Amino acid sequence: MGCMALLAFPSSVFEKAVPFFIAFSGIMIIVSGQQHVLNTKKQPLGLKILYFIALLIMGAYTGYFGAAGGVIVLVLLTYIAGEKFIVINAIKNVICGFANLVALIIYIFTSHIYWLQAIPLAIGMFIGGYIGPIILRHVPEKPVRIFIATLAFIQAGYFFYTAYLR
Predict the structure, then answer these.
(1) What is the pTM of this model?
(2) pLDDT digits over 116-163, tens only?
(3) Where are the membrane-spanning stretches (predicted)?
(4) Element (H, E) at 129
(5) Taking every pair of C-alpha atoms in the chain, what is the biggest distance, in angstroms?
(6) What are the tens digits of pLDDT across the range 83-105?
(7) Residue 20 has what DSSP assignment?
(8) Is residue 70 exposed (0-12), middle (13-18) or buried (19+ Cβ within 10 Å)?
(9) If exposure means fewest CB atoms within 10 Å of the residue's CB, which of 8, 30, 32, 50 is most exposed?
(10) Where along the chain do its domains lie?
């Protein structure tokens, strides 16, 4: 599980890896948006199995770094489900929510949690969980994907700077 990796390795490993995880997720959100509606029935069975295995791995990885994990889960679901972006995003929220809940339970029993910092994050998550679907109903998919990717690249650049250049 990703949360166990986060606990096992020094923070410097996480700091050095994160920019690449985030940049990869930004690339993947753009690439997955190139096919407007995917016909999942024409995909070879082996490819679908590969997507499901990747989804399982990403569920475990999300406990390590949820932001990039969430975007990559979104990408994989695009290829697996072939549904509209708003439906795929809702499924992603449930999957990542459970993955983060499992990670939280493990962190509660194996690590020190800074609750004063965690509470505002939880509040933001619930606000975003409420407002996000409303926005997705009114904004076309392509600008949303571009916005997500742009934020990913900006964040990756910032973390790259802090990890390697500062």
Answers:
(1) 0.74
(2) 998 998 899 889 888 988 888 899 988 988 998 999 999 999 999 999
(3) 20-38, 50-80, 86-109, 121-140, 146-165
(4) helix 115-138
(5) 49
(6) 888 888 889 888 888 888 888 88
(7) H
(8) buried
(9) 8
(10) 2-160
